[in-house]
Structures are given as structure tokens and as C-alpha cells.
UniProtKB/TrEMBL annotation:
<dbReference type="InterPro" id="IPR045863">
    <property type="entry name" value="CorA_TM1_TM2"/>
</dbReference>
<keyword id="KW-0472">Membrane</keyword>
<keyword id="KW-0812">Transmembrane</keyword>
<feature type="transmembrane region" description="Helical">
    <location>
        <begin position="12"/>
        <end position="33"/>
    </location>
</feature>
<keyword id="KW-1133">Transmembrane helix</keyword>
<dbReference type="GO" id="GO:0016020">
    <property type="term" value="C:membrane"/>
</dbReference>
<protein>
    <recommendedName>
        <fullName>Magnesium transporter CorA</fullName>
    </recommendedName>
</protein>
Length: 39
């Protein structure tokens, strides 16, 4: 398997950055859908 090619393994802030990015995307999508009355 190509685990050597995963950039987040060589960057100290790789996984925290990915988790924060996912949280920001999910939160922004929630508020966008809530504003359009889709939720």
C-alpha cells in the first residue's frame, strides 16, 4: 500500500488540519442548508 505517499504523514499538522477542514466544511454546509430551508 502507498502509505509513504500520503503527505499528511510527513507534515506535523497534517491530521489536525484535515480534521479542522472537515469541521469547517460541515459547519458551513449546515448553515447554508439551514438558510435555504433545506433542513
Amino acid at each position: 500500500m502507498g502509505f509513504w505517499a500520503m503527505p499528511e504523514l510527513h507534515w506535523v499538522w497534517g491530521y489536525p488540519f484535515a480534521i479542522v477542514l472537515m469541521a469547517v466544511v460541515c459547519t458551513s454546509l449546515y448553515f447554508i442548508f439551514k438558510r435555504r430551508d433545506w433542513l
